Amino acid sequence: MNVTWNPWHGCHKISTGCQNCYVYRQDARYERDSSRVVKNKTFYLPVEKNRRGEYKLNREGDGIVYLCFSSDFFLEDADGWRDECWRMIRQRGDLDFLFITKRIHRFYECIPDDWGEGYDNVHICCTCENQDRADFRLPIFLAAPIKKKSVICEPLLEEIDLSAYLGSGISEVIAGGESGYYARPCRYEWILSIRSQCVEAGVSFYFKQTGAKFIKDNRLYNIPRKLQHSQAEKAGINVSFRQSDAQRDQQLIFE
To answer: Between vectors from CA 155 to CA 190 and to CA 199, what angle results, nearest 5°?
Structure first.
């Protein structure tokens, strides 16, 4: 079983991929200000213990800890809290922590002093929704000392050429359309193009979801939220390549 750990909540939109952010959509239902960043009560979740003095999160029962899925781990507003999170991540070396960031440009400002070539139990995913963000973020991402790296093309807003970046330890590319009432269309040929680039480079590929508006063979399909993941799975285009011991086989599935 996997678990989500959100030490803080709230974020600021910084690129076109943020336009219809799911966090903002969810907060709007409760009239909550998504731009207000607050520390959550679950901040110390990884090191919480039960009455027997055992960690509540354990390796046997929990696989991946999905970190900061209601914000961005490299968010400026959280600079005062992040060191404490790194301490907990270091303390829980028996758990794997994974987070997605649109702020890879802040990497060197946000890593701990003992980062070195990276923590063995930290997997960082860099997002790029279009070619402009791919060309800005991925060179930084490739050069960064991170032991486990994946690229997220979601929401995919146009055809992207990733061929120059599918190296330097990229273990997987995940692509998908945009959800929500105001979702922008995702075209199937864009998905297939990224898949072909991954196959050519020997990098695993995962088609996560169609999004709400999916175009295939020049026909627009309005797909209900509950079917967007299953329809992507039915396409049968996921590709998995065996990785080295340092990049063990794994399929990343984000709800």
So the answer is: 40
Asked if 105 contacts 80 with a C-beta cutoff of 8 angstroms, the reply is no
**H-type helices in the chain, by residue range?**
22-29, 82-91, 107-110, 131-143, 188-201, 228-234
> Which of left, alpha, beta for 79 (phi over 0: left; psi -120 to 50: alpha)?
alpha
Structural tokens at position 229 = 């993941």
Distance, in Å, from the CA atom of 238 to the CA atom of 89, rounded to the nearest integer, reads 31
Q: How many angstroms separate the Cα of 224 from the Cα of each of 3, 215, 228? A: 25, 14, 6
pLDDT average, residue stretch 181-197: 98
Does the pLDDT of residue 86 top 70, yes or no?
Answer: yes
The answer on pLDDT for 1 being more than 70 is no
The residue type found at 224 is P
Residue 164 makes CB contacts below 8 A (sequence gap 6+) with: none
Q: What does the pLDDT read at residue 61? A: 56
